[in-house]
């Protein structure tokens, strides 16, 4: 798959320390946000920033935070759609020149909105144009809202543009909506708002070794933490990306009730695959929810159900073959 134009071929520069930025960027066109999931709404922001910086022969800059501010400010934290690694990949794919990842802490949370504008946006980045989402607010007490930014822009010499809310199929493209859809197993709707399949990733771990030896369906296991965004527990049709290739598969997210276990795990049976990948990273795109997890009477009943799951999954993969091929090509062209 060819990229859209030469403006997307530059390598994005990443800064994780404000002090490492040597000087303000030439005609910086900036957007700020958490960008969790990098959904279609975020992609519109990046598109606007890239276009404006291209027209002004300036620098497109995205400012985000790690960890997510709500992981620090809320006792219960927040379930993240994407890892920081995935967020970086997706922002680079959007054509941004510079990504600034600010380490978020309680100390940083105490910075006033005026300090943020003066010390970070103006002195460090050199903002000339600022593009934000319709609901953006920042700074202590979230007083740095759009009205505040526009007043600061008039006073301090930078323009402020607002990208309005984006809807797809009457659904608001927002991180909270994507989290809701993933938790409900509505993968087609999540894909609509993300512009791609929802993905989990990690290193393959050793499990109980019963998938291949006892059940007849070997699996690649990824451990999931309680703080992860856990899709609805059950079985999914999936696409697996491993060692530069894409494969079909079925994924079970759950606790293996048939064997009386409690540890949450994502187990993927990869079709037409027999390699040893323990310790290797894989990425799993969730395509469609097939059924909820259930307790079976024993291995024989479980194996029969998995065989039916595999058959249904192969049918889905055949139906979606064209878009799966495009998804794979797009992934390896990033």
Explain this structure to me?
By secondary structure, the chain is α/β, with parallel strands linked by helices. Helix content is 35%, strand content 25%. A six-stranded parallel β-sheet has the order 1-4-3-2-5-6, with helices on both faces. It has a six-stranded antiparallel β-sheet with strand order 9-14-11-12-13-10. Strands 7-8 form a two-stranded antiparallel ribbon. It starts with 12 loop residues before the first strand and ends with a helix. The N terminus is likely disordered.
Helix residue percentage: 25-40%
The number of helical segments is 11
The largest sheet is: 6 strands, parallel
- The gross shape turns out to be elongated
Distance between the termini: 10 Å
What is the residue-mean pLDDT, rounded to a whole number? 91
Q: Structural class from helices and strands?
A: alpha/beta
Q: Helix and strand string, N-terminal first? A: EEHEHHEHHEHEEEHHEHEEEEEHH
Low-confidence stretches: 1-8
What is the percentage of strand-forming residues? 25-35%
Radius of gyration: 22 Å
Strand order of the largest sheet: 1-4-3-2-5-6
Q: Kindly state the number of beta strands.
A: 14
């Amino acid at each position: 798959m060819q990229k859209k134009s030469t403006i997307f071929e530059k390598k994005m520069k990443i800064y994780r320390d404000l002090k490492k930025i040597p000087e303000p960027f030439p005609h910086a066109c900036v957007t700020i946000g958490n960008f969790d999931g990098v959904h279609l709404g975020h992609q519109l922001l990046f598109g606007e920033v890239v276009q404006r910086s291209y027209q002004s022969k300036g620098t497109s800059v995205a400012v985000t935070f790690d960890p997510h501010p709500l992981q620090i400010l809320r006792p219960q934290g927040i379930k993240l759609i994407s890892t920081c690694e995935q967020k970086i990949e997706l922002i680079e794919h959007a054509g941004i020149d510079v990504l600034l990842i600010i380490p978020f802490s309680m100390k940083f949370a105490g910075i006033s909105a005026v300090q943020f504008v003066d010390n970070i946006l103006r002195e460090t980045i050199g903002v000339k144009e600022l593009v934000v989402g319709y609901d953006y607010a920042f700074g202590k007490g979230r007083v740095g809202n759009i009205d505040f930014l526009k007043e600061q822009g008039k006073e301090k010499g930078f323009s402020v543009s607002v990208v309005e809310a984006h809807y797809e199929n009457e659904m608001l493209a927002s991180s909270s909506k994507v989290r809701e859809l993933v938790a409900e197993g509505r993968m087609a709707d999540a894909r609509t708002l993300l512009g791609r399949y929802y993905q989990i990733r990690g290193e393959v771990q050793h499990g109980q070794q019963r998938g291949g030896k006892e059940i007849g369906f070997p699996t690649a296991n990824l451990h999931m933490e309680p703080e992860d965004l856990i899709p609805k527990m059950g079985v999914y049709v999936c696409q697996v990306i491993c060692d530069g290739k894409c494969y079909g598969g079925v994924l079970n997210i759950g606790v293996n009730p048939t064997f009386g276990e409690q540890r949450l795990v994502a187990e993927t049976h990869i079709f037409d695959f027999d390699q040893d990948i323990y310790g290797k990273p894989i990425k799993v795109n969730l395509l469609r929810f097939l059924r909820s997890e259930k307790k079976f009477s024993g291995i024989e009943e479980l194996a029969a159900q998995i065989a039916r799951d595999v058959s249904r999954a192969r049918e889905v993969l055949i139906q979606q073959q064209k878009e799966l091929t495009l998804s794979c090509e797009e992934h390896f062209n990033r």
